[in-house]
Amino acid sequence: MELILTMEGIHVKNKEQSLKDFVSLLKTAVNSLIEKPLLEELRFSGYDNDDRFKLNLGVPLLLESIEASYLKTIVFSDNEANTIGGNRLLIGLTKKWFDITLKLTHDKINEFGNELLDMFKGVVFDLYRDLKSEFLLRDCHVGIYDLNIPELKPPRDHEFFGLNTPLEFIDEEFYLTNPHRDHALARKLLDLKGVPTLKTTEKFGLHCLQWSNTLEEQRLIENVLTRKKVMAQALELEVDDRYNLQGDEWYEPPGLGEHDVLTFYSAMYGIGIKAVVLDENQELEEEIKEMLTTWVRNGKLEDGTELRSLNLILPNRDSAVGFREKATQMGIKKVLHIDDDRVIWDPFPEGTWVDFPMK
Fold first, then answer.
1. Burial class (CB in 10 A: 0-12, 13-18, 19+), 20
2. Are residues 175 and 126 in the same domain?
3. Least confident of 179-188, 240-249, 291-300
4. What DSSP string runs through 228-292?
5. Does residue 245 lie within any of the structural domains?
6. Are 230 and 192 contacting, i.e. CB atoms less than 8 angstroms apart?
7. Alpha carbons 344 and 266: distance in angstroms, whole number
8. Residues 229 and 337 occupy one common structural domain
9. Residue 23 falls within a domain, yes or no?
10. CB burial readout 63-72, b (16+ within 10 A) else e
11. Contact 99, 7 (CB under 8 A)
């Protein structure tokens, strides 16, 4: 499991603020940040495109970065080599805004355990306190990666909803004081009541929603799943437009076109789709079954057309769901169905899902 603290879109309030003042504020904040116990081992630094980092170099690079006309990213690392792994603090900079990303791997999680959650909160609240007079915080949360957390089926559509997070933060001034499209949603989140696993804290006008008090994996998964269910209902979110109300995923591989032998074919990926009809016993005719299994076994059609995978389309969802197990035994990859608008749907999208119908 990996935890990533993300603070995105930290915007300067005063667009006319001098570069000198911006740099001064940022230097103070970053110096304070990297001295915290959680980050004290991040002693090497440089730009994200450097092959190797230098010891204790980071903060002096800030002025040069901001004076550049394009985004630059400074990295603080526990390793001299610039590798994807390891614990890292990344600061992306332009002249008017910056992002902060802190990546912690399983060794830090094992070292600090549940205490990490309070340490994350301390880092964010302290940094916000130092910067709030001049900056607005658009997005801040702790993301969970490399942990199999189920999605709700059907999935809901909103950036608030899509996070796998035990901690998220709402800047009162950004979301509630200034006009913002998510003002109402932020207000609903802060007004949530009666959620046993939710603890809210406010400091300096920054609100923290803590959905889990543990990083023990099974309980963490349960608590993050509770967050998704609560938010889906409390925010009255719509279904993601790539899915229907049953949670079936819209299916259309790139390059898909009609085909004389197959019903549809994608030459780009070698994907074939064949429309079939089951008999009254919900079985395929033996001749059709033999033809399909031959195609799958040979990896091509009789004319040599490449077939990397074969999918079936059935006339309705019930037959597609019911026939899936038998189709899988034949080597069929997906069993799909098509609606009256000729939209193809996959009732078994990839991933781990928990049924949570729309109310």
1. exposed
2. yes
3. 179-188
4. HHHHHHHTTPPBPTTB-TT-PEE---TTEEE-SSSSEEETTTTEEEEE----TTS---HHHHHHH
5. no
6. yes
7. 14
8. no
9. yes
10. eebbeeeeeb
11. yes
- The tokens describing 304, both together, are 């040599």
pTM for the whole structure: 0.85
At 24 the three-state DSSP class reads helix
Which structural domain range is residue 304 located in?
251-355
Please answer whether residues 250 and 343 qualify as being in contact, where contact means their C-beta atoms are separated by less than 8 angstroms.
Answer: yes
184 shares a domain with 140: yes
Taken in order 103, 108, 114, 117, is the CA torsion positive or negative? negative
Q: Do the Cβ atoms of 76 and 34 come closer than 8 Å?
A: yes
216 and 270 assigned to the same domain: no
User: What is the total residue count of the chain?
Assistant: 359
Question: Which residue is listed with tokens 């999918």?
Answer: 311
Q: Which two tokens stand for residue 189?
A: 């989140």
Q: Looking at the structure, tell me whether residues 34 and 121 fall in a common domain.
A: yes
The tally of domains found in the chain comes to 2
Binned at pLDDT 50, 70 and 90, residue 277 comes out as: very high
- Residue 337, token pair as written in the block: 């169905």
Q: What are 314's strand-pairing partners?
A: 337
**Cβ proximity of 239 and 157 under 8 Å:** yes
Lowest mean pLDDT among 181-190, 208-217, 251-260: 181-190
Q: Does residue 147 sit in helix, strand or coil?
A: coil
